[in-house]
Amino acid sequence: MTKADSSSYLENAFTLESLRDSLIRQEDSVIFSLIERAKFPVNSNTYDKSYISVPGFGGSLAEFFVRNTEDVHAKAGRYKTPEENPFFPEHLLPPVVPPFPYPEVLHPASAFININKSIWKVYFDELLPLIAAPGDDGNYASTAASDLACLQALSRRIHYGKFVAEVKFRESPQDYEPAIRSQDREALLKLLTFESVEEMVKKRVAKKAMVFGQEVSLDTDDKEGNYKVNPSVVSRLYEEWVMPLTKIVQVEYLLLRLD
Amino acid sequence: MTKADSSSYLENAFTLESLRDSLIRQEDSVIFSLIERAKFPVNSNTYDKSYISVPGFGGSLAEFFVRNTEDVHAKAGRYKTPEENPFFPEHLLPPVVPPFPYPEVLHPASAFININKSIWKVYFDELLPLIAAPGDDGNYASTAASDLACLQALSRRIHYGKFVAEVKFRESPQDYEPAIRSQDREALLKLLTFESVEEMVKKRVAKKAMVFGQEVSLDTDDKEGNYKVNPSVVSRLYEEWVMPLTKIVQVEYLLLRLD
């Protein structure tokens, strides 16, 4: 594939309409990953720093797992695409694949916007206790792998705010420029908030949690409401964390858009 | 958690009824993973040995990715549970976690039953072209990560045949012993085949592909049938590969059950 081919492939994908489609599609990924994590009980040894023994490493198995898996992903080139942001960006290993001509649609400084520390904290401290049942089945490695899938799906979704902010800015720069020039976070946040859209998203993700988390059998549909992840938790996840964190990404992006 | 706690937790999980529930639940995981892979086009560079440059390594990015991720999973203890089987078992790294007292329910020799080479071949040669659209978006690392999720879900599901065979044997050893003593593969295969059950599984996984792969929106349900993975492909996956490979695992297991 030539540079022209791949650039046009990706440039075409970069409209407000297609970003919306991507965000909606990413809801499915987020919910699938939560349902998969909910297969396992809490498995608290995964998060207990005293459980593992790695010389010179003081973190939990979950952190060990994410750091080491990110090494593999970095070698495979994952963090060269502007859509992906690592949880441990300090010592990224160089890729073993040639550079790919991703179209440069974002402001270059946006590469430094990374709120994965907040996402990590929200995921482990707030969300996980709401989706995993108490208990221990010893499947700590698979548990950590499911945690990573959730973290990556949430991180990708939330940092997509960079693209959303860029497209919104391009569509009506005059709306954003005054607030950017005065570095007015609050004014930007107001410009980016559409309550009716947010209400719709909350309802849609709850519905998706019902559809994807139901027991599907041949005779009857699941009328008992034994969903694998509580739909109201998914709705709350979006209301309290995903949408506010996305807006933080958008605001941070816009603040440097004219630099 | 004490040994007694965790053993009873897992022993309780080990009945024909609970195995059935697990197999049904694993269908969801398999289908989620296929839907997630179908987000990306084929991205053939992921499978092209000439695309990556790693001194001393002659495989594709997909193989590099799976081998290196399995190293991390092995360190996290994944392959100590009898439910998991690595794709590259030759050089498994030792875990950084203490041993977990998984109950010993399987015949010890079953640890050597591993048909992941066949699963690998079926996945890349047969299944992948049926679920990924032609094209290239440069997301090779994420593509390889989705491939690994599919491979792991399929491998876990298919090797669960070991547990199914063990429980079936325990329930009526007299049915299986003659065929085992005469090492009669064909007779065992016949004992393990229930066509009406297989028909039901094929229908159920197709229905799940429709439910999980539909476009969920607030106003209407998806009546257009634009499923993210073709339900008939999922049905065919189970008919032609998952169920036959599971029966191979079951037969191999039973053949050594009296050793």
TrEMBL record, chains A, B:
<dbReference type="InterPro" id="IPR036263">
    <property type="entry name" value="Chorismate_II_sf"/>
</dbReference>
<dbReference type="Pfam" id="PF01817">
    <property type="entry name" value="CM_2"/>
</dbReference>
<keyword id="KW-0413">Isomerase</keyword>
<protein>
    <recommendedName>
        <fullName>Chorismate mutase</fullName>
        <ecNumber>5.4.99.5</ecNumber>
    </recommendedName>
</protein>
<dbReference type="InterPro" id="IPR008238">
    <property type="entry name" value="Chorismate_mutase_AroQ_euk"/>
</dbReference>
<dbReference type="GO" id="GO:0042803">
    <property type="term" value="F:protein homodimerization activity"/>
</dbReference>
<dbReference type="GO" id="GO:0009073">
    <property type="term" value="P:aromatic amino acid family biosynthetic process"/>
</dbReference>
<dbReference type="GO" id="GO:0008652">
    <property type="term" value="P:amino acid biosynthetic process"/>
</dbReference>
<keyword id="KW-0028">Amino-acid biosynthesis</keyword>
<feature type="domain" description="Chorismate mutase">
    <location>
        <begin position="140"/>
        <end position="250"/>
    </location>
</feature>
<dbReference type="GO" id="GO:0005737">
    <property type="term" value="C:cytoplasm"/>
</dbReference>
<dbReference type="GO" id="GO:0046417">
    <property type="term" value="P:chorismate metabolic process"/>
</dbReference>
<dbReference type="InterPro" id="IPR002701">
    <property type="entry name" value="CM_II_prokaryot"/>
</dbReference>
<keyword id="KW-0057">Aromatic amino acid biosynthesis</keyword>
<dbReference type="GO" id="GO:0004106">
    <property type="term" value="F:chorismate mutase activity"/>
</dbReference>
<dbReference type="GO" id="GO:1901747">
    <property type="term" value="P:prephenate(2-) biosynthetic process"/>
</dbReference>
<dbReference type="InterPro" id="IPR037039">
    <property type="entry name" value="CM_AroQ_sf_eucaryotic"/>
</dbReference>
<keyword id="KW-0963">Cytoplasm</keyword>
<comment type="pathway">
    <text>Metabolic intermediate biosynthesis; prephenate biosynthesis; prephenate from chorismate: step 1/1.</text>
</comment>
